[in-house]
């Protein structure tokens, strides 16, 4: 739930984009459960926007309460070059999703597939998941050279690591007979640059819908799998800095050799310099959920909490949440420190590692 408050400081006036330059169009698709993290994404995007460009942000949704709409508007208030607009889930999408099993995903995941018809006056659009935080100007992503490809994206490192380990995910094994001939080219659909004009020329929307209708049961990641099959080997790789996430830092034997010569080369330097331009909190361990003693959670929390507390619309709610998280972490830390002297061998090493994780987590919460 949002409490609408105005930011304490306002950016300066905007000179506007160069004559004839299209606005930077960015699309999101969320249910009400995702509006809190989307507010952080929107604020980070607006904060890094260029005063010389205009930005048109679209939120496709399935019915948001007025308080959620106001909270999202507050997240970009003070940035006159950023316009936020809302679009309810269209009848075409509802019909497409009728009686279709999308498992753990929201049906709105399919909205990005319909972007060519949802936004007929746009020639290009960026799609972003709501669990992202921007550290650079989205105009750079919007302007990316796709080299004639219908879309740009970044390969999925979870898939890469499974291939390197010699145990391809079941998802990949199911997709290969459907047309995923080279699984190393499988990409993540949380950050996309869509050439809508090219997609319309190729009737991509109909092809995507037809593929889903024919193979829905085989798709574990419905929209992402469909995009990977329909556009297999037609995807322009984007710089890795624009879809950076914690999995790059998890040690996986053989992964470094596998990414040599690809867009992933040098990824460790990006982490060392904190040079990512967009951080994507993939997976289920979201930093706004109850704390976990895991490396994945801590890395995402380290990125998310500071910009979250800078988002005016969220401050009252997050201040209370942060206090609860901090109290829990301190209690867990004291509990494990008290038991450490009575632990031995493997138990001692595990508890000591847990203490180190809790100390890092407490530092994140205290500095947010």
Describe this entry's structure for a reader.
- The protein has 368 residues and is of the alpha/beta class.
- Helices cover 42% and strands 13% of the residues.
- It is built from 15 helices and nine strands.
- It has helices at residues 35-47, 66-75, 91-97, 115-118, 138-142, 157-165, 170-175, 196-201, 204-215, 222-230, 255-258, 267-273, 295-309, 315-339, 345-367, and strands spanning 24-30, 55-61, 82-88, 124-128, 132-134, 151-155, 187-195, 235-237, 278-280.
- The strands form two sheets. Strands 3-2-1-4-7-6-8 form a seven-stranded mixed sheet, with helices on both faces. Strands 5-9 form a two-stranded antiparallel ribbon.
- Helix 1 links the parallel strand 1 (24-30) and strand 2.
- Helix 9 crosses helix 10 (222-230), helix 13 (295-309) packs parallel to helix 15 and helix 14 (315-339) packs antiparallel against helix 15.
Q: How is this fold's topology laid out?
A:
Blueprint: E1 24-30, H1 35-47, E2 55-61, H2 66-75, E3 82-88, H3 91-97, H4 115-118, E4 124-128, E5 132-134, H5 138-142, E6 151-155, H6 157-165, H7 170-175, E7 187-195, H8 196-201, H9 204-215, H10 222-230, E8 235-237, H11 255-258, H12 267-273, E9 278-280, H13 295-309, H14 315-339, H15 345-367
Parallel strand pairs: 1-2, 1-4, 2-3, 6-8
Antiparallel strand pairs: 4-7, 5-9, 6-7
Helix pairs in contact: 1-2, 9-10, 13-15, 14-15
